[in-house]
Amino acid sequence: MNVLTSVNNPAVKAARALKTHKARQDSGLHLAEGPKALSELLAFHINVERAFCDAAFISEHAASIAKTGAELMCVSENVLDALSDTRAPQGAVFVVKTPVCPPGAPSGLVLALDGVQDPGNLGTLLRAADAFGASFVLLGEGCAEPFSPKAVRASAFSCYHLPIRKSASLLTDLLDYKSKGFKLFAADVHGEEDLPAPAPAPHLLENVCVVAGSEGSGLRSEIANICTRVRLPMPGRAESLNVALAAGIFLYEISRRI
Questions:
Q1: 183-192 and 164-166 strand pairing
Q2: 200 — pLDDT class (breaks 50, 70, 90)
Q3: pTM confidence score
């Protein structure tokens, strides 16, 4: 197999462009890296359009790459370096069709985010939502993009496990959820300390939405005002927690109550 060594190859240039938000938005494609990405993409039947891999990766994972149906390009180390978003590429970069959230109303445990701007925080929140049994993630105005390279990596590929919808108006969507019986709980440093007591039997709270706000300013007041505000008890001296850590604890506590 010929080895592609030029970063100016049209396919390589098109893939490199996917590091930018505009290219991802215009194309409906994004990048994912490494053997873990390959196994997740296969497991969740995510469409892979092209695979840029070094010879060693191809030798070890040829059968799995073939199952994706992707166009395979064997590339040199310098090409992988140009495509990768990490300092130590893992042998493969994939051009992936970005999943589209299916229609329909959510149920169960939902995570809603208001203005979470850091892609690392967003990815960590997606991972926590996945770990604690959320069925859906709603991204309000000002949120980072869930399929940027950093967010995909921080999510540990949980971005492929959950429906993720971008909201045109988080307030409107949350009011709609509330009208349909959802309990809205806001992670709020100024809120009450008490969560509902853990359920003695399943389904004390069937449909719950955990709402978390931006790293700097928290939830917008109009969002917080329609929610039950809950503050995590903190006996230590820290004034607050990082949004990803706080919401992760919050999701765990809520998951024990439904």
A1: unpaired
A2: low
A3: 0.92
Main-chain dihedrals φ then ψ at residue 45, nearest 5 degrees: 55, 45
pLDDT at position 87, please? 85
Helix spans in 69-208 (H): 77-83, 119-131, 149-154, 170-179
CA atoms 161, 165, 166, 170: torsion sign: negative
Parse the chain into domains and list their residue ranges: 10-97, 109-255
> What CATH number should be reported for the domain whose range is 10-97?
3.30.1330.30
The DSSP symbol for 258 reads -
How, if at all, do strands 164-166 and 136-139 pair?
parallel
Mean pLDDT of 187-214: 73
Beta bridge partners of 109: 208
Q: Which CATH architecture has domain 109-255?
A: 3-Layer(aba) Sandwich (3.40)
Instruction: Give the residue from 248, 137, 242 showing the smallest Cα distance to 189.
Output: 242
Contact (CB, 8 A) for 232 and 191: no
Provide the pLDDT for residue 139. Answer: 98
